[in-house]
Structure formats: structure tokens, C-alpha cells
Design a protein that fits this description.
single chain, about 350 residues, disordered N terminus, alpha/beta, 14 helices
Length: about 350
């Protein structure tokens, strides 16, 4: 049966190659929407925490109290680390029910929370289209002093476009990785002079301590990748880890792009992912938190390697308030992802 399936796989792959169709995401040049999963890069977190510190510090210098609303968990966790110890700042997480980022629509209560805050922090990109309806003029007419922070915009040239699923072409990973690494220029561009504000709100010490933790994690990820047996990942799921893979020079295949709302894969997609697993001697198929694992199980059922396992990585987009109360943090989740990455690469 395995031999028959391999013959069918080869034939199907040949037909797909002739028609120029590829059903799985692969590193390439064809782009559509911007990839909004910016927080899944530790290096992005460094840049964005610098930027957030700048804005928070300036706002705090002119106000006795601040209310900050963040759309998703990573942004919320960064802000609360930056302002730790300042009782004059309240930080609210908007999406804390555990629902998928791509299915989120604000309630009337959410909109009231946004309208009443001093600083509104969101990712930007395709999944934040709803913000244009809530703040149609790019701001809040009822509260014109409110500061809106679009983090994709803050990333500047480091922001990547979401890849098109069909027809993607492979590019040089070393060049992509090198282009993603220099942070100093980006930090300098994102940050404004703070010398006159430090005394008013001393967040710089908090930032420095948090950056040290991020840099330690970055070093751990570097070590995992540099000592790994392979550098290719296969996702039987969506692929929100574009930035992480670019940072560390990893290749990848996936059923869907990161922004996709699809959950059922075609036969062609399964064939392509089986081929990727076998061609690259992959030991694990990766899924996201909350996955039903149907695609991963289909890949495993049809691959020659009966020892294939499933590894879960967390996209950090559906953290609940209960998990936060139990002590979950951006760093703890990213360390879990690092452990999963180590398993998948060895």
C-alpha cells in the first residue's frame, strides 16, 4: 500500500509541477497582505518594546494616569513589563477569551473600552481590518487625545508581506536571515529622544531588564538552530511563524498561510506535505494550539516514516485571562516554542 501511495504521490507531484500549482506555503517572493504575526519573533519584540517604551514614556510625562488597551496577549505582556511598578498605568487586554485572532469581532463593551483609553496598541494588517470600522478616521473623534499605535507600521522595512500559497518560489535563506538581523538601525529609527522624559517615568530600567531576557532567549534559539540536524519545518496547519523562520534561516512548508481562515486541506496539499516530510527526512509535523490535528494525522498516515510524531507550537494569539492569572507570559510561551522547535529540528 505504501509503495502504491508513493507512485500516486510521484504522479500527482508531476502533474502539479506541469500545471505550475503548489498547494503548500514555501519561502518565496510572491506576496499579498502584510503578515501580522509579528510578535512571533524575539527580535521584533526587542524593536517594538523600544518603540512602546518611547510612546508610553512621553505620554506618562504629561499625564498623572494612563489607560492602555492592547488587542492581543504579546502586546499586553510587553506593555505590562515596561510599566511594571507604575500604579498610575492600567493595562487592559482586549482579546482574552481564547478565541482565534482571525475570528475576532469587538463587542459593544470592547468598543467602549477602546474609546475610553489613552493609548490603543494593535498589530495592524489583515486581521485588524475591524479597527478601520471602530476608528474610521484613524483616531477617536470622541477622544482626540487618544494615541493609536500600529505595530506593523512601527516595524517599517522589517515588516514582511504574507506569502501567497500557490506558486511560491524558494529564495536564499541566508540572505533573508541576514537582512532580518540588524536591529540597531531599526531601534534608532523607532525610538525618539527620551532624555527629558526619563525622570518623569523611569521605564528605561524596566525596558533594559526585559531586553536582556529577550536577548537571552534569542541566544537560546540561535543555539537550537545552529546545533540542529536539519533546518526545515513542516506545518500541518496555518503558518504564523514567518518572522521566526526568517530570523534563524529556517525553511518551511505549511498547509495554509498565517492569515488564512481555512481549516480543511485538499488532497493536493496533503500530497505536497507528505512529499516535503519524506524529501527532508522530517521527524515531526507541527500544529498550532487548538488544532484538531486532522491534517497532521493525514500526513502521518500517508508518509513512509511510521515514527512521525506531532509537535505543538503556540501562536500566542488565543491566550485566556485564566492562563494569564496562572502566570503565562510571552517569554514562557516562546520558551515552550523553542523546546518544540528543538524537537522538530532533531
Amino acid at each position: 500500500m505504501k509503495k502504491l501511495f508513493s507512485c500516486l504521490l510521484a504522479a500527482a507531484s508531476f502533474v502539479l509541477a506541469l500545471t505550475g500549482f503548489s498547494a503548500c506555503t514555501k519561502n518565496g517572493h510572491d506576496h499579498a497582505e502584510q503578515d501580522e504575526h509579528i510578535w512571533l519573533s524575539v527580535r521584533n519584540a526587542e524593536v517594538l518594546c523600544e518603540h512602546l517604551t518611547d510612546v508610553l514614556q512621553e505620554a506618562r510625562a504629561t499625564s498623572e494616569t494612563l489607560s492602555v488597551v492592547c488587542t492581543v496577549f504579546p502586546l499586553y505582556d510587553w506593555v505590562r513589563n515596561i510599566v511594571a511598578g507604575d500604579d498610575g498605568v492600567s493595562v487592559t487586554l482586549l482579546q482574552k477569551s481564547g478565541s482565534d485572532l482571525h475570528n475576532y469581532q469587538p463587542t459593544a463593551g470592547d468598543i467602549r473600552t477602546i474609546y475610553s483609553c489613552d493609548i490603543f496598541v494593535y498589530v495592524g494588517g489583515e486581521s485588524d481590518d475591524w479597527i478601520g470600522d471602530v476608528l474610521p478616521d484613524g483616531g477617536n473623534s470622541a477622544n482626540p487625545a487618544m494615541v493609536c499605535i500600529d505595530l506593523l507600521e512601527a516595524l517599517g522595512e522589517r515588516a514582511l508581506a504574507e506569502e501567497e500559497v500557490p506558486g511560491a518560489e524558494e529564495h536564499n535563506h541566508d540572505e533573508a536571515s541576514a537582512a532580518a538581523r540588524p536591529l540597531s538601525d531599526l531601534v534608532a529609527a523607532a525610538a525618539r529622544p527620551l532624555s527629558d522624559l526619563v525622570a518623569a517615568a523611569p521605564y528605561e530600567d524596566n525596558l533594559a531588564a526585559y531586553l536582556r531576557e529577550l536577548q537571552t532567549l534569542d541566544g537560546e534559539l540561535e543555539e537550537i538552530v545552529s546545533s540542529a540536524v536539519r533546518t526545515t519545518l513542516v506545518f500541518g496547519d496555518r503558518f504564523p511563524f514567518r518572522y521566526l523562520c526568517e530570523d534563524y534561516g529556517l525553511s518551511y512548508y505549511a498547509a495554509f498561510s498565517g492569515c488564512s481562515a481555512e481549516s480543511e486541506a485538499s488532497f493536493a496539499t496533503i500530497l505536497n506535505l507528505v512529499h516535503a516530510v519524506e524529501e527532508n527526512d522530517i521527524p515531526c509535523v507541527i500544529v498550532l494550539e487548538g488544532s484538531n490535528r486532522d491534517i497532521a494525522n493525514a500526513i502521518i498516515a500517508n508518509a513512509r516514516n511510521s515514527a512521525l510524531s506531532i509537535v505543538q507550537m503556540n501562536s500566542l494569539q488565543s491566550v485566556t485571562q485564566a492562563q494569564i492569572d496562572e502566570g503565562m507570559t510571552y517569554l514562557s510561551l516562546m520558551r515552550e516554542n523553542a523546546a518544540a522547535l528543538e524537537q522538530a529540528l532533531n
